[in-house]
Design goal:
Elements (H helix, E strand, L loop, with lengths): L5 E5 L4 H12 L3 E6 L2 H8 L5 E5 L7 H11 L5 E4 L15 H26 L4 E6 L12 H20 L5 E8 L2 E2 L14 E2 H14 L3 E4 L1 H11 L2 H7 L2
Parallel strand pairs: 1-2, 1-4, 2-3, 4-5, 5-6, 6-9, 7-8
Length: about 240
């Protein structure tokens, strides 16, 4: 069981990040919980004295300011869990495609700024660990999901390469690829989401995988195999999405 560690979690004001922060704090870890919503973070901190709120906007905060604040909060970090993200759908018939830039900024560039800002503190621990929450959506194309899927695919590849380059620094990297999770983001979806998991169920699986320091974690398995099969039959998948 993960305990007595110092862990920074982004996107902790709701959804998966919120539940993972609660679980790890209850296991006896000091959790630095960050997000843009100060009220939500303060409410999260009421669950445990081990939770320290850190208001952080990965869209605007640069890596230097992130590193400066984290250094004021802790002498080192054992793990960083990157859960911050957003989802917007693209209307190809619209003249406004700005959602692509926004989603890439938060899901990809924002997470990279967080990694860069925390890397020196991870190096100070005996064996650091970076955990990125990507998505199974990057495995199979979905209608209007160009921005979201591309951002998660880019982040997933970045994590795989980063794992190689950080090996010499004794820092592990885990790519967590969940399916559909019941969060404020997915609650806006107007389509069927097979094998939907609660945020608490997802949190339990993520924490278990983090403990093992797995390279890649994909769940639920039934959805994973469904997507793998469909990705091998692109014409069939295209016909089903007409």
């Amino acid at each position: 069981m993960i305990t007595n560690e110092i862990i920074w979690i982004t996107g902790a004001s709701s959804g998966i990040g919120y539940q993972v922060a609660k679980q790890l704090a209850n296991q006896g870890n000091k959790v630095i919980a960050s997000g843009r919503n100060r009220q939500a973070l303060d409410e999260l901190a009421q669950h445990s004295d081990n939770i320290l709120p850190f208001v952080c906007d990965l869209l605007t905060d640069n890596s230097e300011s992130i590193e400066h604040t984290l250094t004021d909060l802790t002498p080192h970090l054992n793990r960083v869990i990157l859960s911050a993200g957003d989802c917007q759908y693209l209307d190809v018939n619209s003249s406004d495609w700005s959602c692509i830039q926004h989603i890439m900024d938060i899901n990809f560039h924002g997470s990279i700024r967080a990694i860069q800002g925390s890397l020196s503190l991870l190096e100070k621990s005996n064996k650091g660990h970076i955990v990125g929450i990507t998505s199974m959506a990057s495995m199979t194309p979905f209608t209007q999901a160009e921005a979201y899927g591309a951002s998660k695919a880019a982040f997933s590849y970045f994590l795989s390469s980063l794992r190689i380059d950080l090996k010499q620094k004794n820092i592990d990297v885990t790519d967590v690829m969940p399916g559909f999770i019941d969060t404020p983001l997915t609650q806006k979806n107007d389509f069927n989401m097979p094998f939907l998991l609660t945020a608490n169920e997802a949190s339990q699986r993520i924490v278990k995988a983090i403990e093992k320091r797995s390279y890649k974690v994909i769940f639920p398995r039934r959805l994973h195999w469904l997507f793998k099969i469909l990705s091998c039959m692109p014409k069939l998948w295209l016909s089903l999405n007409k």
